[in-house]
Structure formats: structure tokens, C-alpha cells
Amino acid sequence: MSENESIVPDTRDWAEVLERGCVTCGFTGNEEVLGAPAEIRAGVDRWADVLARPDATRRPRPGRWSDVEYAAHVRDILALFRRRQELMLAEVNPQLPNFDGDAVALAEDYRSQEPGEVIAGMRDAADAYATALSAVHGDQWERRGHRDDGRIFTVTTLTQYGLHELRHHLHDVDG
Prior knowledge:
Blueprint: H1 14-20, H2 36-51, H3 67-90, H4 101-107, H5 115-134, E1 144-146, E2 152-154, H6 155-172
Antiparallel strand pairs: 1-2
């Protein structure tokens, strides 16, 4: 693998994570979505601590992203999940936009991003997503959307999977 190649973090399929949880990061799959806005905002504070490390831009070993690359990925995931949620609330059973994490990491050059800019972007993305989640109520939680591969999400399962992404990647960086 060359120095410039992206390394998408290895996480399990979302359905498996929601069914069985994730022993790696402690996610159970039964997380209460009403607490998601607070957890998302608190997660950014933990990421700020991670990105304040002097070696945040260094890959600790071959095959593992630097802390700033993980943070850039999480920033983009938070923004993606907010857009997907908004689409699910605005349309009936919409097709959700694809996300190729490796392609995005390369196109956005995660490796060269500055920690201060990444945390500022993450804070904005987290605040926007948390605010959008705070407005969801009643049966909106069961609104559906589907990916190209046929996988169906509800707003609830999308939110739970977003919480897993946040927790799992914090675990990846010992945050």
C-alpha cells in the first residue's frame, strides 16, 4: 500500500451491528435514539481531545488511518446521515445516496487535512445532525429509505448506526 492510499476503517455490516451489537466498541444495538443528539455533541468533545494530540496526523502503523483521517471520516458520516435522514422525512421510501468511504477519503485528501479544520467541520456537522434529530417525533422514526444494494433503513436504525459509527471510530483512536 502506498503512502497516499486511503484505508477505510473496517466496521461490520450495519444490520449485523444492530442485531448483535459490537463487542469492540460496546455498542448494543438497542441504543435509545432520543439520547442521540446529546451523545453526538458529546462525541465531538472527545474527538477534540483526540485531535489535540501532537501525533494526530501521523499514521501509527501501515494499514491504519491517522486520528485526523478517522475524524474527517466521522465528520463526513455525520453530514451524510443528516442528509439521509432529511431525505427520509421529506420523501416516501427514497433511495439514499451512496457513500464510498475510500473514494471520499482520497478525493477529499483526508490525510492532508488540518486537525483544527476537521474538528470545526465535525462540530458543525454534529450540531446540524443533532439539531435535525431533535426535531424527529412520533412515527417519523419509522420512516424508511433504501440504499442501492436494497438495504432498508428507518430513521431509528439509521440513527442507531450513526451512533455506532461515532463510538466505534472513537474506540479506533483510543478516544
